[in-house]
Write a structure and sequence with these properties.
Blueprint lengths: L3 E8 H14 L11 H6 L6 E10 L5 H18 L3 E5 L1 E8 L6 E8 L1 H14 L5 E5 L6 H10 L4 E6 L6 H9 L5 E2 L4 H6 L5 E4 L2 E4 L2 H7 L1
Parallel strand pairs: 1-2, 1-6, 2-3, 6-7, 7-8
Antiparallel strand pairs: 4-5, 9-10
Helix pairs in contact: 4-5
């Protein structure tokens, strides 16, 4: 029997900050940023399934230090996994927040385009029939409308949701339960994360990427 093609759509912001919050309350999760995303996703597949691709949706942080760490992580994943790992970039913008009762405002970076990019890509892949199973790694309730569209227009395509650690969506859960499936709580899969940690130095075809020192200290 032909295996079902599974495509993972990862909300990088939701995923990263979920890990960050989780490690504050459970030290076992400390340092689990340097992850081979393809290996992690493959660990969730059934025997009748085949990984088509992992698509990681994110934006480049405005901070040079954070941007450098993210770039090392993304480049190492791309080097290890080739065409099975794709990066789709949105952007960060500075957003002003004003105090209504005082003459004070702060600027905070805000990620834009990710939920739209995920929505469009999931629908596009269904249109061109490049996947049999949509595996969404996010707990962003804004993604319920594209999920509902796929369920209506492409009933032969199954949808799975994987909630990143520390994140949960009642809206996504209720939608899936209505279609007789349940979301996967990634926080219950610490062993899979630990098994997917990349070597400190990822080297291939003359290219070398090293785990950021800030992350390495957490792991050791």
């Amino acid at each position: 029997m032909e295996k079902k093609k599974v495509t993972f759509y990862i909300d990088g912001f939701n995923f990263y900050f979920g890990l960050k919050r989780t490690k504050k309350i459970n030290p076992e999760w400390d340092g689990l940023y340097w992850i081979d995303m393809v290996k992690l996703c493959e660990s969730f597949l059934g025997e009748d399934q085949l990984l088509a691709k992992v698509i990681y949706f994110t934006a480049s942080p405005l901070s040079p230090q954070k941007n450098s760490r993210q770039s090392a992580f993304l480049n190492a994943n791309k080097l290890l996994n080739g065409d099975k790992f794709e990066i789709v970039k949105g952007k960060y913008i500075d957003k002003q927040f004003n105090c209504p009762n005082c003459n004070y405002s702060i600027s905070r970076p805000e990620e834009k385009k990710t939920d739209v990019n995920i929505s469009l890509r999931m629908i596009e892949d269904c249109l061109v029939n490049s996947t049999d199973i949509v595996a969404l790694v996010s707990a962003d309730s804004d993604l319920v409308p594209p999920i509902e569209m796929i369920q209506k227009r492409f009933p032969h395509i199954r949808i799975r949701a994987y909630f990143p650690p520390a994140n949960y969506s009642n809206d996504i859960r209720d939608n899936l339960l209505h279609h007789r499936t349940k979301p996967v709580l990634m926080i219950k899969n610490l062993r899979r994360f630990k098994s997917a940690i990349m070597p400190d130095i990822v080297e291939k075809d003359g290219k070398v990427y090293t785990i950021p020192s800030k992350w390495k200290k957490s792991i050791k």
